[in-house]
User: Which sequence fits this backbone?
């Protein structure tokens, strides 16, 4: 779900918390070693997101926030803040090209670059994948 999160809206906050969980507490953030990604440079995106990004002439960047049941991919267009809300069960993360990661949810996608010397980006993606696999519900076949 792609939403405009520029203004404080309790109904939208409740909907986001229902999808991906409430934000981590301070102690949980410290234990995880941080829950936010560094600034990620967007190289490509789905048509809905691309139509928003072309409004602004500045560099296209986003960031990822880890939540208990998913992630929030945030980006700014002019003075508006948009969030792509992705629960873990709909999250697909690929490393397609040598220096590019892709995040998919249904028909939305964002591709961002991660050069070889951007170690913090690679560490965050690894943390995200490890957290996702550790907190997915077990399959009925595994029992």
Assistant:
């Amino acid at each position: 779900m792609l939403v405009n999160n520029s203004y404080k809206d309790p109904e939208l906050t409740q909907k986001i918390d229902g999808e991906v969980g409430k934000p981590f507490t301070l102690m949980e953030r410290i234990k995880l070693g941080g829950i936010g990604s560094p600034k990620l440079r967007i190289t490509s995106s789905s048509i809905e997101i691309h139509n928003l990004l072309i409004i602004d002439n500045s560099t296209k960047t986003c960031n990822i926030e880890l939540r208990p049941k998913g992630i929030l991919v945030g980006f700014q267009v002019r003075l508006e803040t948009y969030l792509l809300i992705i629960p873990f069960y709909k999250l697909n993360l690929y490393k397609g090209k040598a220096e590019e990661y892709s995040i998919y949810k249904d028909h939305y996608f964002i591709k961002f670059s991660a050069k070889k010397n951007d170690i913090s980006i690679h560490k965050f993606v690894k943390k995200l994948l490890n957290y996702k696999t550790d907190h997915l519900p077990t399959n009925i076949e595994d029992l």
The first helix runs from residue 10 to 20. The domain at 2-131 is CATH 2.30.29 (PH-domain like). DSSP finds four helices and eight strands in the chain. Helices lie at 10-20, 26-32, 47-53, 119-135.
